[in-house]
Amino acid sequence: MPITDGWFNVFRLSEDEPVQEIDAFLEPGDRLFGGGGGPAWLAVTLDQGLEAMDGGGCERAVLTVRQDGNTLIRSRPPTVEVGLEMVKRAPDRLRLALQLDDVSSPVAAARCVTEHAALDEMAMVGVWPSFLHCDLNDRRLYPVYAACVEAGLPVRINVGIVGPAWSSKHQDPMLLEELLIDFPDLTVIGAHMGHPWELLMMRLIMKFEHLHLMTSAYLPKYFNPELVKFMDSSRGRGRIMFGSDFPIIPISRAVEEARKLPISEDSLELFLGDALCDVLGWK
Fold it and tell me: In a designed cystine with 214, which of 67, 146, 210, 241 is the match (CB 3.0 to 4.6 A)?
């Protein structure tokens, strides 16, 4: 069964590169997730990431990268340039998700999306509303969404309670309704489960054909039972997508638990990669 991880993080190209300094964003990580926390995550190299993919039977993954700009967060994903080199070293296994750092200039942010969308390696655009300090349907983001529609790129939007001690109001899934009414052709992947509003996400998915949900940063054993039933239903099959948020969650553990979900083999295949690859056109 082909497996594709929709949220994959690697912070160093090789052992020769320095390890980034941990900041307030990652400091609570060990308390929430264990596994050594931020310092261990920031030390992960491309080879170690590929090894983790192999250990979980994961053939492909979408690697998070960032635009090359300043930000208050020090512990950051690699730049697009470094991400392209990573894809070059594993060309059949990796694609990129451009995580936006700054939308203070909506025109510049949209131009950034348009420029990077021309890259064959770019699979999606990432929007983290609580980090950007604006609602997911804020008008400052509308030029970005318009650029995504024009480029045919999905946008991966964090929804639900945010991990760091920041405001989660920007990520209320109910805000997706207005966004998808305004952008009916925009493909949106709600990331990080939307917890604790999974039932709302399910209802919105039934309403909007281009809305999906990614379970990144949540182990399958913590999935809402109603969501698991939805994954195996005629209206939910193929709309829920797998993402580990490696190295925060080990890929092998996430896959192992996913295989224990009480859903059909067809639904499991869609969840573990087929649905995401269909949306990305990654055949």
Answer: 241
What is the spatial distance between Cα 139 and Cα 162, in angstroms, rounded to a whole number?
21
Cα distances (angstroms) measured from residue 213 to each of 61, 81, 86, 175: 16, 28, 26, 15
Residues of the chain with confidence (pLDDT) below 70: 23-37, 69-75
CA distance 135 to 138: 5
Instruction: Name residue 190's beta-bridge partners.
Output: 157, 213
User: Quick one: CA torsion of 212, 216, 220, 226, rounded to 10 degrees?
Assistant: -30
In the chain, where are the structural domains located? Answer: 4-280
Question: What is the architecture of the domain spanning 4-280?
Answer: Alpha-Beta Barrel (3.20)
* Amino acid at position 257, single letter: E
Q: pLDDT (tens digit, 9 = 90+) per residue, 164-223? A: 889 999 999 999 999 999 999 999 999 999 999 999 999 999 999 999 999 999 999 999
User: What's the pLDDT tens digit per position in 212-236?
Assistant: 999 999 999 999 999 999 999 999 9
Q: Residues near 265 by Cβ (< 8 Å), separated by ≥ 6?
A: none
